[in-house]
Amino acid sequence: MSTPVVLYEQEYEQLKRVITRLCADANAKFVFLVDKNGQQIAAHGEMLNLDTTSLASLTAGNVAATDGLAHLIGERGFPVLSHEGERDNMHISIVSARVILVVIFDERSSLGLVRLRVKRATAEMNTVFEVIDTKIDRERDMGIALDSPFAEITEEDIDALFN
Amino acid sequence: MTFINYASREINCKIVYYGPGLGGKTTNLQYIYDSTAAQAKGKLISLATETDRTLFFDFLPLDLGTVRGFKTRFHLYTVPGQVFYDASRKLILKGVDGMVFVADSQRERMDANVESLFNLELNLKQHGYDLMKVPYVLQLNKRDLPNVVSASDLTAELRRKGEPVFEGVANRGVGVFDTLKAVAKQVLLELRKNGGG
């Protein structure tokens, strides 16, 4: 089983700040960050009733399928996807090779503006993810086990989940 | 791949249901969805053909409750079982934490079970996983049909590593939650064993 992906509070807050600013600067309706396995990381925007769990899973599936198509034709990947709707549009891009940034916007913004703002936000988020990686590598090198909420879980705890 | 979010105090794990076409993978998820309280589940997403054959995946998020202050969520996926959807199956397996193999107990589907299991091992290997090390449960589905292989023969043929085996009739819910609980338990115990890192 592979090592879990961990998001600490400090880095989460940094990512939240970046996407909040991106949402404002791009005049977007909603900005969403999801990892490539379909887990939602952070979100900000005015679409309060959006089913973000489904959005995360479908976005990851979409990107995975598109990556598959890219490899078939000899490309490394398609790092940017754009979907145009009647009212709302969706811009999907890859950050740090493992995270997907989704921006939903309408006629109050434009694809050009979103692309411009995404470029800056991507650079900022790449820095945050580098810090996360460095932190994890440093702790691993020092033999410090990552904090795990399950280090002391008991079978009774697990059984209780299903009662 | 388990995702631990310390900011929102959530843990998300991914379980994938695998098996031959029309074996009961989607039926397992549908039963779980229909039987789970509204506050404990999200929407059941099914990307399927017009004839309700899974095209890409089914997805069901389940909220199992809180453990040690962390909300524990399981994301259940099924893969398309038809042979020619192998490229899609490979994609869905990425980041898996636990597997369920749903075998079709009918005698005439024996070859399909074996082929699908072989395919699972191969696709896991391509992602760097070893079936021998991944939390894994075997479900023998469709036990209510008349032309089924005996459970003992089916187990002898398909069991890989002493994994828990459950007899099931997924469209009536028999064995569905037992299967889910068993694989979820394995995933959580594996997390404990690894210390989360």
Number of strands of chain B: 8
Task: Give me the count of strands of chain A.
Answer: 6
The top level CATH class name of chain B: Alpha Beta
Q: Order of helices and strands of chain A, N to C?
A: EHEEHEEEHH
- Give the CA-CA distance, first to last residue of chain B: 12 Å
User: How would you describe the shape of chain A?
Assistant: globular
Give the CA-based shape of chain B: globular
Return the domain count of chain B. 1
Q: Tell me, rounded to a whole number, the average pLDDT of chain B.
A: 91
Order of helices and strands of chain B: EEHEEEHEHEHEH
| Strand composition percent of chain B | 25-35%
From the alpha-carbon coordinates, what is the Rg of chain A to the nearest angstrom?
A: 18 Å
The side-by-side strand order for the widest beta sheet of chain A comes to 3-2-6-5-4
Number of helices of chain A: 4
Predict the CATH topology of chain B. Answer: Rossmann fold
Largest sheet of chain A, if any? Answer: 5 strands, antiparallel
Beta-strand share of residues of chain A: 15-25%
**Sheet with the most strands, sense and barrel status of chain B:** 8 strands, mixed
Class based on secondary structure composition and strand pairing of chain A: alpha+beta
Structural class, from helix and strand content of chain B?
alpha/beta
Estimate the mean pLDDT confidence of chain A.
86
